[in-house]
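Each record in this resource describes a single protein on a pair of labelled lines. An example record follows, reproduced without changes.
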Amino acid sequence: MTETPVLNTPEAIREHLEIALDPGDRGHRGVRFVLCDAENRVMVHCPVDDVPDDVDAEDCAHFVSVFASALAEGDEGGGILVALTRPGTGAITDVDRTWFRVTHEVCAENGVRVLGVHLMTPRDHREIHPDDAL
């Protein structure tokens, strides 16, 4: 029996994503929502594949709200980790910024903690910070 990962530090989050997403996954445009309980233990990974490259804020909000509202209903104090995957470099794009802003807005509305928003390409992995989203 394997131990359930606990995403309680930036290092733990980074390591978990590196293990969970292989380079093939990281080269396709998509989003991985990692739902965690109140103690940041991973409960489930929810991948969304084939996300359009020009996704807008309304579509981002729809995707995030599906998982944030489910988490809010099922586990008080739960948290969500978002991993954006796409081909290309680790340079932050306008779409990445939209995902970051919308994730924080929708999760705040649903009372869900955001454990982070990460960008993962075949060669790069970086956490998106508020300064990146300006």
